[in-house]
Amino acid sequence: MVVVRAKKNLGQHFLTDKSIALKIVESLVSDVSNVLEIGPGMGVLTEYLFQSDRYKTIALDIDRESVEYLKQRFPSFAEQILYGDFLRSDLNSIFGGERVAIIGNFPYNISTQILFRVLDFKDIVPEVVGMFQKEVAQRIAAPPGSKVYGITSVLLQAYYSIDYLFTVDEHVFSPPPKVKSAVIRLTRNNVQKLDCDEKLFARVVKAGFNQRRKMLRNSLKSLIQCDGFLHPFLEKRPEQLSLAEFVELTQSISSFLTSKNNAI
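-> structure tokens emitted (264 positions)
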């Protein structure tokens, strides 16, 4: 075990078990040479990443105190330890447009925001390995029909295959969270672009799951904003639709809205 400091205001619980840290690092399987660690904290993952000959690792943290601590702990890698907010960062600028894998014990209060930001750079991010609150990890990896299948499931699975790797108990963190955690891996699939209007697709998915107990004919009314659209999927609830079916529904809505606009 290693002793770490806790910064509750950042919503982060620092991993203290080195064996689990090594297991997380070893879960990176892509052939990329660049790795970005988000929220390194006291460096329990960073230590193994800097030791590896496979990667050039950049550690990015929004907490200046952590950045200064890591630079003192790893002086040979000081130039690779950066202060910054991942949610506002441009990966193309940091890595010159080269492919990069992402890893981290992500702050739980912004973990889904981190993954949605990853989608902005999906063309250069082939892999993400991260620690999440267990419920969030299960939601991201959930298949259609599951009670926790939702917006994050569909939008992330559109571009990444999700593997639930292992569950992590509370006692290996400082401070211990009140929930169990889990490590998942996202691996980029072969979809370069969905076969539909991608912005409309996201709106359809969000509108559907924002009222997940309702049939889609009711939850999508505000999106379509006119009568006359008919589709068999409207008689289903959003969790019953697969990714491919959401794409098909988006195509149909797009064609319907286009025809209505042309008729005006």
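DSSP finds eleven helices and nine strands in the chain.
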